[in-house]
Amino acid sequence: MLSDGAVLLRPYKRGDARAWSEVRIANQAWLAPWESAPPGPWAEMNSPRAYGYVYRDMKRAARNGDSMPFAVCLAEDGRERLVGHVNLGNIVRRAFASAYAGYWVDHRVAGRGVIPTALALAVDHAFGPGGLHRIEVNIRPENGPSRRVVEKLGFREEAYHQRYMHIDGGWRDHLGYAMTSEEVAAEGGLLARWRRARTAK
Ligand SMILES: CC(C)(COP(=O)(O)OP(=O)(O)OC[C@H]1O[C@@H](n2cnc3c(N)ncnc32)[C@H](O)[C@@H]1OP(=O)(O)O)[C@@H](O)C(=O)NCCC(=O)NCCS
């Protein structure tokens, strides 16, 4: 488990089905423009039953070393609730040692810095025990909030990928951001950098 203040990252559990489904269904309009959707109606693809397949796939990918998926939770008022997701996927080892980050948060807790904190925790884990060297984040140019997340954390904008991913019914251009472990090592890690940036505001 990784945590900073009320933000907590942990592996998914089989018992997350109802909470995951509730938050995904409540956020259809918020998430659909930014995600590559599986074929099928949103309610069905995000039902507690569908979670069984999602869970199995995430566990398999994690076991194979292809990804590091985390449930993002908020620990408040004496309870912990699932409010989002961070995944380091497409992990390539050996001379690349790289991964792509993806994330989302419940619109009801947006704007509180939950995902920057969660992503910083995940990146520090990846650069430390995870043995990775480079994390990429690819974002649609029109996704202002997501661009703010990586800009606040100090990712470098380094690429423009045309018609990069099929999202919300079309092939969408993406901006490529990246960070390597050397860029944050001297600062005590990404979470330490993010904490300093927040207190400096
Ligand atoms: C992108 C996303 C994960 C950001 O998470 P977050 O925890 O809200 O991140 P932050 O609190 O740092 O807010 C980031 C920006 O969102 C914007 N924002 C703040 N409150 C907001 C709200 N209630 N609604 C919409 N946007 C808001 C602000 O521009 C903010 O930047 P600022 O800190 O410079 O003001 C979240 O907006 C989300 O889940 N969006 C839909 C899914 C998505 O886009 N995933 C990423 C695909 S690349």
TrEMBL record:
Enzyme Commission number: 2.3.1.267
Cellular component per GO, a single term: cytoplasm
Gene Ontology MF annotations: protein-N-terminal-alanine acetyltransferase activity
InterPro entries according to UniProt: Acyl_CoA_acyltransferase, GNAT_dom, N-acetyltransferase
Domain N-acetyltransferase per the UniProt entry, residue ranges: 7-182
Pfam annotation, one family: Acetyltransf_3
Alphabetic keyword roster: Acyltransferase, Transferase
Record-linked SUPFAM superfamilies: Acyl-CoA N-acyltransferases (Nat) (SSF55729)
Domain of life: Bacteria
UniProt cross-references to Gene3D superfamilies, sorted A to Z: 3.40.630.30
UniProt similarity note: Belongs to the acetyltransferase family. RimJ subfamily.
Protein name: Ribosomal-protein-alanine N-acetyltransferase
Source species of the chain: Actinoplanes campanulatus
Lineage start: Bacteria, Bacillati, Actinomycetota, Actinomycetes, Micromonosporales
